[in-house]
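Task: sequence in, structure out. Protein: Chromate transporter.
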Amino acid sequence: MAKQEKSAALFWTLFKSTFILSAFTFGGGYVIVPLMQKKFVEDLKWIEEDEMLDLVALGQSTPGAIAVNTSILIGYRMAGIAGALVTVFGTVFPPLIIITLISYFYMNFRENPFVDALMIGMQAGVAAVIVNVVFNMVDSVVKQKDIVNILLLVAAFIASFFFDVHVVIIILLAGLIGFINLTYHEKKGAL
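Result:
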């Protein structure tokens, strides 16, 4: 009985957390991801920061929305397939409801100046959150004090920003280099 209650509480917390984050976050996956990190790493202390970065990287590298992919991975990490289903529903329902309501009333407020001002204000907030995510991820990589990871971070930025290299190529090369670097460090530690 206690295990069922714990499972029900875990599922409810997963659903409630992803539902609230998804309902009150505007700007897409790159905005919701740091809020997921705050909720599951800092507040609930269910996941370590390094593991959360790994889950975000996996969520970003798989097809689909990063927020949905990351929530699936968090749910799966915490409660298996059932947890993944709970978190995906928690993440998808709020936008579905909001978009349905917006599409129903779209013609009425399409040209409303207050709605237009609200959207411009949200864009500024989204930009600030994205900058915060970038600084937190860079800080996390630099704290590891692994020169290969730092150089990889800089090279990925340069390749994407200045040379417009496709993100899939960057992810594949970064994954390969990261794997080689990890294998090297494990062999070096074993000696």
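The first helix runs from residue 2 to 23.
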